[in-house]
Automatic annotation (TrEMBL):
Pfam families assigned: NHL (PF01436)
Record protein name field: 6-bladed beta-propeller
GO molecular function, one term: zinc ion binding
InterPro entries tied to this protein: 6-blade_b-propeller_TolB-like, NHL_repeat, TRIM-NHL_E3_ligases
PANTHER family in UniProt: E3 UBIQUITIN-PROTEIN LIGASE NHLRC1-RELATED (PTHR24104), PROTEIN LIN-41 (PTHR24104:SF25)
NHL repeat start and end residues: 123-153, 157-203
SUPFAM superfamilies (alphabetical): NHL repeat
Domain of life assignment: Bacteria
Tagged with keyword Oxidoreductase: no
Keywords of the record: Repeat
């Protein structure tokens, strides 16, 4: 089964990533790949990090400390040759950094901003990214729509954003990534509630909006000449990373998100080459694409480049 177009064609690897008997997913939210092309899936169930090899064979699973049924943001970053995982929990307000085996090396404390947060107005971190200088940017996508900046050691620096649709404001800044191939690094923010991508500099100053060819972008993954992002409304979108223009939609199903009960649809609705609620995406060294969907018992798909 193929999906894409002549510029970016893929085929479904059927049966990839099966769990062993006795193990199960919760909602699958984040997905990343390490330098060995092992694939890590973050979900809301027991042992919430699950690892497969490139062929889809189950390797191991573990529970991230401080990450529970609000497991959400998932990011892998290489620092001085060593790989680390960053994870968030939207319910507990947790942001942690771990080794690939799950040992915590840093816990980032919630921002102390009494004018922004209180008992009613919660902090709910959805994603994060790391700049070239090591600064960490955390998006409060499900809370008060701010982006918080920390040093590499977890010290709070500043915040920017807040609720709105004008330049520099956000409505569910759900995902964030650093684009490195320009003259200066830029932050790409999946401003999902505003149905757009907003690009800002590392100080949080607005650069531009991108509003074409997307429908509720969730997060980003840069690979080669492409920027991949899951559109929650039932497709994965591929942009040319140089000029932010459409290359392809993968697995598009414009009826899925309109179904009653979405995202948890009847099992006979799902098709291998169609997505319902893509939430996380990454790519391995071959350019093959991995997608995690926001479904109660999880769904992970591998698309091989052809």
């Amino acid at each position: 089964m193929k999906t894409g177009n002549q510029q970016f064609m893929t085929e479904v690897v059927q049966g990839w990533g099966k769990l062993p008997e006795g193990k199960s997913f919760g909602y699958t939210h984040g997905i990343v790949v390490d330098q060995q092309d092992n694939v890590y899936v973050l979900h809301t169930g027991h042992e919430n990090v699950t690892v497969f090899n490139q062929s889809g064979e189950y390797l191991r699973s573990w529970s991230a400390a401080g990450i529970a049924d609000g497991a959400h943001g998932f990011y892998l970053h290489v620092e001085q040759g060593e790989e680390f995982l960053y994870l968030t929990d939207v319910n507990l307000g947790t942001v942690i950094k771990t080794t690939l085996k799950g040992e915590i090396v840093l816990q980032i404390q919630p921002p102390q901003l009494p004018d922004v947060y209180n008992e009613e107005k919660k902090y709910k971190p959805t994603d994060l990214a790391v700049a070239p200088n090591g600064d960490i940017y955390v998006t409060d996508g499900y809370g008060q729509h701010w982006i918080h900046r920390y040093s590499a050691s977890g010290e709070y620096i500043t915040s920017f954003g807040g609720t709105g649709n004008e330049p520099g404001k956000f409505k569910c800044p759900h995902g964030i990534s650093v684009k490195l191939d320009g003259e200066e690094p830029q932050l790409y923010v999946a401003d999902r509630g505003n149905f757009r991508i907003q690009v800002v500099d590392l100080e949080g100053n607005h650069i531009k909006f991108i509003t074409n060819d997307m429908d509720m972008p969730c997060s980003f993954y840069f690979t080669g000449d492409y920027m991949l992002f899951p559109d929650l409304h039932s497709r994965v979108t591929v942009f040319d990373a140089k000029d932010d223009t459409l290359v392809a939609h993968l697995g598009e199903d414009q009826q899925a998100y309109k179904q009653q009960g979405w995202p948890n649809l009847a099992k006979d609705y799902y098709r291998d080459d169609r997505f319902s609620s893509p939430h996380g995406v990454c790519a391995d060294s071959n350019g093959d694409v991995y997608v995690a969907e926001w479904i109660s018992d999880g769904r992970v798909t591998k698309l091989r480049r052809v």
